[in-house]
Amino acid sequence: MRWMIFILAAAFAAGGGCSSNQPRGASKAEAFLITIGSGGGFTGMSNGYVIHSSGAVERWSRLAAGKDSIQSAGAITEEEAVRLKMIADSLDFFQIPRGAPGNMTSFVEMVNDSSRHAVQWSGMYDDAPPGVFSLVQAIRRTVERFEPGER
C-alpha cells in the first residue's frame, strides 16, 4: 500500500495530476529556424544569419570549398522571432516556388518540426521576388543590429 501511495504521489508531483493553463490538445509552440544568406560570384563566398525560434541569432559564412563558420551574433526576443514566422506563414512560404540560382544567389530557408523549404533567387536581397520580398526585408531589419561594425 505504501508503494502505491508513493507511486501516485510521484506521478502527481511529475505533473500527471496537475492541470495546465493550456487548452486540451494545445502543445508548446513549434520550434523553427529561419536562415537568410547570399553569395557566389568570383570568390564563391556566402554569408548570412540563422534565427532560432528561441530568439538566438547566429552569423555564418562559407568559402566555396570550405566548411561553414558559425558564431553567435546575439539574440532577439522570442516575440520578434515569432513575428518573422508569422510573416512567413502569411505568405504561405512553404508553397512559394523554390526559384533558381544565379551567379550571385540569395535565399531564405525555413525549417520547422516537420518541413524544410528554401526560396532562392539570382541577385542580392533587394532583388528578392515579390512572394518573399516582405519577409526578406523584415529579416534584414531584424538582423542589421548584428552586422559587423554596426552598434
Structure description:
The protein is of the alpha+beta class. It has a single domain, classed as Mago nashi (Mago nashi protein), CATH 3.30.1560. A six-stranded antiparallel beta sheet has the order 4-3-2-1-5-6, with helices on one face. The chain is globular. The chain starts with a helix and ends in an 8-residue tail after the last helix. The relative contact order is 0.16.
- The assigned CATH architecture is 2-Layer Sandwich
**Cα-atom radius of gyration:** 21 Å
Order of helices and strands: HEEEEHEEH
The share of residues in extended strands comes to: 25-35%
How many domains? The number is 1
Q: What is the helix content?
A: 25-40%
- How far apart the termini lie comes to 65 Å
Low-confidence stretches: 1-28
Q: How would you classify the helix and strand content by structural class?
A: alpha+beta
Cα shape: globular
Widest sheet: strand ordering: 4-3-2-1-5-6
CATH fold-level label:
Mago nashi protein
CATH superfamily: Mago nashi
**Averaged pLDDT, please?**
81
CATH class category: Alpha Beta
Q: Got a strand count?
A: 6
Largest sheet: 6 strands, antiparallel
- With helices defined by DSSP (H or I, 4 residues minimum), what is the helix count? 3
